[in-house]
Amino acid sequence: MWFEGAPLDKEEIDDESIAWHEENRIIKPDFKILDGSHFLEESKEDVDYIMDNTRFPYISIPEINVPHKDLFEEANHLLYTACFTAHRPCSSGWLSLSIHGLSSVHTNCAEDYNLPEDYENTHSDWTDIAKFCPKTVQWMQDEMLYKRFGRVRFMALLPDGWLGIHNDRPNPIGVGATNVALNNPDGCEFVFEDMGIVPFEAGSVMKLNTGYKHSVWNKSEEPRIHMIFDGDTSDEFKQQVNRGYAEMLGV
Fold first, then answer.
1. Torsions phi, psi of 25, nearest 5?
2. What domains appear along the chain, each with residue ranges and CATH number?
3. Segment 91-117 mean pLDDT
4. What's the rounded mean pLDDT across residues 194-217?
């Protein structure tokens, strides 16, 4: 069973959140009007320009290879053996486990644990959980093109689970963490306010703009497991983001 041996109070999603989800999931954003026409030109001189300034809700990065079946198998085994911890209030069935960070169970930012803001940057390392997922560790080192890993977490959303409507910062300018889908069951949707559904499928890699309000709802019968990456990316990674951005614009 999921989260074996630990209490898990599951709550049904409320009517207001259902209505919000249904209203926003059908929206199709026009990416061509979100940013200025100069963004791609600016990115030729400043590789960070698009990531720092875009209003896109997400940027797909199709060049990164993800052996999602192998990674899902490792993460799902850890889920079934009760290694995950409940992650956020205003949610149900939303669980987390750090493979790299302060510890496997300290899945929030450093300030939440009364540590200095930059503590995560200076003290993150492979956690005790890393030895149980060697394929994931090797893939991260070989394919993710990060100069430095910060918090890197498996995030599981159980069947009928949901993540309440929220934003992670007040301003929707620039993308934040990298989200890697190890699976994405039919019926599980990540929805942005006024921006519709993020088109996740198994193996997708996305930069997300969580300055927009968003919610996730898993209406399937299986857990949805993604990874979230914080840290410092290489210039090659940023170039891949910029090429993904251009592809989304049809350029």
1. -70, -25
2. 17-105+123-248 (2.60.120.330)
3. 94
4. 98
